[in-house]
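Lab notebook, design round three. We kept the backbone fixed and only want residue identities now. Task for the bench partner: fill in a sequence for the structure below.
Input structure tokens:
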């Protein structure tokens, strides 16, 4: 088996695992029930569920946790991801955006909001952004 065949096999197995995980029953709160999420500065916040657009945006982005401990676990995962570059406010960089089921990259001026950065979707160069899309984009879309 050559390296490309091994990569294809691993990618296929990963996609299958992700499909299985997606099938697991997800927690859906009742109206008025509290939940936790990470804000744009990677701080834990809580909110009461009212089935509004804010709640549903958090659910779709995967930034929606039943317990503070689960939110804290995600916070630590994000912070543990080593990066050699942190965008500064006003710096030009590349955001990885999703429209429908299509990813694209777009040059932006960083506003200081680190939410996309912690999600790994702010890159220093256009090539880094395109590499992310090529590597992870199809799996992210499959998840939804």
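Proposed sequence:
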């Amino acid at each position: 088996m050559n390296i490309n065949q091994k990569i294809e096999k691993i990618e296929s197995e990963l996609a299958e695992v992700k499909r299985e995980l997606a099938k697991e029953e997800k927690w859906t709160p009742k109206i008025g029930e509290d939940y936790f999420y990470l804000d744009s500065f990677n701080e834990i916040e809580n909110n009461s569920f009212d089935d509004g657009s804010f709640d549903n945006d958090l659910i779709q982005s995967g930034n929606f946790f039943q317990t503070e401990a689960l939110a804290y676990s995600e916070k630590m995962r994000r912070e543990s991801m080593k990066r050699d570059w942190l965008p500064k406010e006003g710096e030009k960089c590349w955001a990885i955006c999703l429209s429908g089921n299509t990813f694209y990259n777009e040059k932006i001026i960083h506003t200081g909001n680190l939410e996309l950065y912690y999600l790994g979707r702010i890159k220093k160069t256009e090539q880094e952004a395109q590499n992310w899309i090529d590597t992870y984009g199809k799996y992210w879309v499959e998840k939804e």
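Keep this in mind before ordering anything: Residues 92-143 form one domain.
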